[in-house]
Amino acid sequence: MTxxxxxxxxxxxxxxxxxxxxxxxxPDEIVLGRRMEDHLRFAVCxxxxxxWEGGDPFGGATFExxxxxxxxxxxxxxKAEAAxxxxxxxxxxxxxxxxxxxxxxxARLAESHARLDEMADxxxxxxxxxxxKLLWGTANLFSNRRYxxxxxxxxxxxxxxxxxSVVRHCMGVTHRLxxxxxxxxxxxxxxxxxxxxxxxRETEQMGRFLSLVVEHKHRIGFKGxxxxxxxxxxxxxHQYDHDVxxxxxxxxxxxxxGEVKVNIEQGHAILAGHSFEHEIALAxxxxxxxxxxxxxxxPQSGWDTDQFPNNVADVAxxxxxxxxxxxxxxxxxxxxxxxxxxxxxxxxxxAAHVGAMDVCARGLKAAAALLxxxxxxxARAARYAGWARGDARAMLAPGATLxxxxxxxxxxxxxxxxxxxxxxxxxxLVNRYV
Length: 434
Hints:
Its EC number is 5.3.1.5. With 434 residues, the protein is an alpha/beta fold. The protein has helices spanning 36-40, 46-51, 73-90, 99-102, 109-128, 157-176, 199-220, 244-253, 266-271, 276-286, 312-324, 346-373, 375-383, 390-396, 402-411, 423-433, and strands at residues 30-31, 34-35, 42-45, 94-98, 133-138, 181-184, 190-191, 225-228, 238-239, 260-265, 289-293, 333-335. The protein folds into 2 domains: 30-373, TIM Barrel (Alpha-Beta Barrel); 387-433, no CATH class. It has 16 helices and 12 strands. Helix 6 (157-176) links the parallel strand 5 and strand 6. It is globular, with a radius of gyration of 24 Å. The two termini are 40 Å apart.
């Protein structure tokens, strides 16, 4: 015990509580036949919760925590103790990490690997003693200056090889700890200017690296999903993994659409010009939906501010699409979110997660009620009912020709009239639930 969260007891579902408690999140509440905890599969992220020091582009660290700076193994172990204290207080079933979050980088590659193994020993003991499971692990291939021109897409082949070693080792640790997924977080897989960039070469390298990761997954017997996190313009001007559609195109090109899925972040979806629910629905339609990072952006900032979610309507629409897909399998709800720079206290970190978990619980219940009510699905089915006709199905069947379809339209003197999409009525319907 570090004493960092001293005086904060494990939290319970208590709608009438005055202090810290869950008003809406009850892990054992049954929603659509499943426990709420099993629907939401909450995970606390190690990096923002314990690695971020409160800096921004105009100022340095504001958080003074006993495990800062992240420069020796003693502090790394103290950080781990504090992390597992928070996991216990919140009662979350999962956590997530980057390798660099949990241990300081060593002077040499072998030392970095040994340090991660040492932290994995500690994690393994904590998990065996009742700690949460690992939703996913990932490697930090973006912070060190060696990655300034990318990781797998770097013009230097030695960086590509270095990344292979880092990912192999982090995948091995994720596998050892029973991780249910492994994420490839391409923070610098993009470019700043075409003047010094070979697009064809870099995308070929990225696809090859993904293929190598998939091959290694099967070689070591890792049963979890491989996930790619779409990232627009962050931090490079052009990212090769801009959004779900872009990632799918890359996967399809290299024959990986049956092997790799996506981890979708709300903030990244917005920066790509989409809604969160759009990206989830598209991933589902393409068969590559995996997991989500739950956060939000400040609508005035135009940047990925990684704030904890607090809008029930937005969250409900996201969970509606997830429920339509049958819910999570190996994925879950990871809070890739951080405190504001002025939220300095240990209790602030607890309160942020409590509020976010309650918002997600409310959103899930609203989404479940909306889905169970069936009105949206009935409206959707009615809108496409014409495609159930035999002549309509025939147009999409193999062997149909453009000429045949055109001949029918002319022979029947077709004059189709527009039908209302009733968007406002459907929006009003949603608002009755949230």
